[in-house]
Amino acid sequence: MPKPNSSTDFIRAIVEEDMRTNKWGGKVHTRFPPEPNGYLHIGHAKSICLNFGIAQQYDGLCNLRFDDTNPVKEEQEYIDAIKEDIRWLGFDWEDREYYASDYFHQLYDWAVQMIRAGQAYVCDLDPEQTREYRGTLTESGKNSPYRDRSVEENLNLFERMKAGEFPDGTRTLRAKIDMAAANLNLRDPVMYRIIHANHHRTGDEWCIYPMYDFTHGQSDSIEGITHSICTLEFENHRPLYDWYIEALGIYHPQQIEFARLNLTYTVMSKRRLLELVEEKLVSGWDDPRMPTVCGLRRRGYSPAAIRNFCKVIGVAKMDSTIDIQLLEHCLREDLNKHSNRVMAAMRPLKLVIDNYPEDLVEEMEATNNPNDPSAGTRTVPFSRELYIERDDFREDPPKKFFRLGPGREVRLRYGYFVTCTDFIKDEKTGEITEIHCTYDPQTRGGESPPDGRKVKGTIHWVSAAHAKRAEVRLYDHLFTKDNPNDVPEEGDFKDNLNPNSLEILSDCLVEPSLATAAVGDRFQFERQGYFCVDPNSTSKKLVFNRTVSLRDSWAKIEKKGE
RNA sequence: UGGGGAAUAGUGUAACGGCAGCACGAGUGACUCUGAAUCACUUAGUCUAGGUUCAAAUCCUAGUUCCCCAACCA
């Protein structure tokens, strides 16, 4: 039961009120109803967390139901992916896996029942005529000339539609409601249309398929759903949802609408995501830059981070756009707790410790996770020749730069204090190619020296002889605009694609403990960010994705100085 | 010239006639073997105009702005 002091969103408030008044006999039963015509994205995750979360919280159930009423768009591939994603997010529909297509026979019988009751008729208008007859937002429509056919004729025609006698688009079954209704959904909506297409589950059994509106509420009703939660754009459909259920005289669930999730620098419509995939602007549905659940998974997001995000953003009816930084905050919060630290030089710069013995290799003890003592320690080999991060050396360091520069001393994490004595520069390119240092043997393990000397900076490193080579893929927002759909006249959201959303670093060096990392493993590369092993990774060639960078206050300082 | 919704710090989200709170962001400082994390502090809000009331984000009236709807998509 809800905690006494936690505030509840408006949907949970409705559920609690219904429990209090015993409206549904104390029962809570929700459903998540995806159409299998695309991959799930983080907006669906919000809905999944809401529907499954409410069921969990109030000792109810949540069904998984595929809304598969349009055979031309739906595929088994999507069904499999959707199921995998929901499970990965941590939710379980047990044996309650349903399909709207399971109800095709029942829906057909209900359609016949409505024809008999004079509530439905077969209409011979083609799609264009249907639109003309419907009227506009401000003008009422006019009745179809076929509206007053006899019950017998309607029964006969509908039967023949089902038998496949008519080509696609030539006839529909329509509900007889009101062509003058202010809500266009009530102007004799189409219940059934003719589609001679193979359905992924029912095969060629049907050539007429029910519309969403004639399917969804009845499916909810059949399954005994109490709270049918959907997004705002279905608010206009609620009167029709209610109308069908009343006309049929069946159990009546309550539809409740909430605002869908929008994220800055992200597009969230399945249509647009499909476009990116089909035009190969991303590598696929699971491209780590995609807001799809599989994309986030490959990127290195944890289910817990996504769940917490969905909790933190709340549920309301106001259209809103969540700052992507909140998602990243939730991500870092979880990864910080659970990721082991390792060292990696992404843009390696050679560092030689001139006074360190040539053949000596020391095994330095390193903490796996300073925020989680149970994560233990590991050893990292240290030797005379190392690689550090190129960013950690400046030939001419600006003020407040705490890292390495000529004559400067820094700590090598878990290693020694080193002082830069010299550096080699390629005069042609201006590139620094090598740094020379001396070390202080009294600072082993990174300990401060007895003389109380302090350094401001600690930098990471890998041993040249022991490091493993790796490819690292750095990701940035897929779009340059916080609202990618904000385009000038005649523009396209794809005009806002960020050309630098992927940067591949192929000559990175990582500490040897990473040689055995498995696909999906997550790490913090110290001082840089969170990374995970990409499915492309092999023992020959390690590949990491940067999930998210660490917060970087030095970058802010430096930017301000510009 | 229709109908349905929604308006609270920069972004989200609470407060259900009785002290406008929380989170993220941003800023400042402390601490630090990660310029991370952590900790402390600061910043900033009720769409507008009237009205009811001892008291209004909340109730009433009128406006303004934004979103959705004219697929045989969902």
Plain-language structure description:
With 562 residues, the protein is an alpha/beta fold. It has 13 helices and 25 strands. The chain is elongated, with a radius of gyration of 31 Å. The strands form 6 sheets. It has a 7-stranded mixed sheet, covered by helices on one side. The longest helix has 16 residues, at 42-57. The two termini are 54 Å apart. Helices cover 26% and strands 23% of the residues. It has helices at 10-20, 42-57, 76-89, 104-116, 127-134, 151-162, 216-223, 238-248, 270-278, 293-299, 303-313, 324-338, 553-561, and strands at residues 29-32, 61-66, 97-99, 120-123, 172-175, 190-194, 208-210, 227-231, 254-258, 340-342, 344-345, 348-353, 362-367, 377-382, 385-389, 409-412, 417-426, 431-440, 458-459, 461-463, 468-475, 502-510, 522-525, 529-533, 542-549. It binds one RNA strand of 74 nucleotides through α5, β6, α12, β19 and α13.
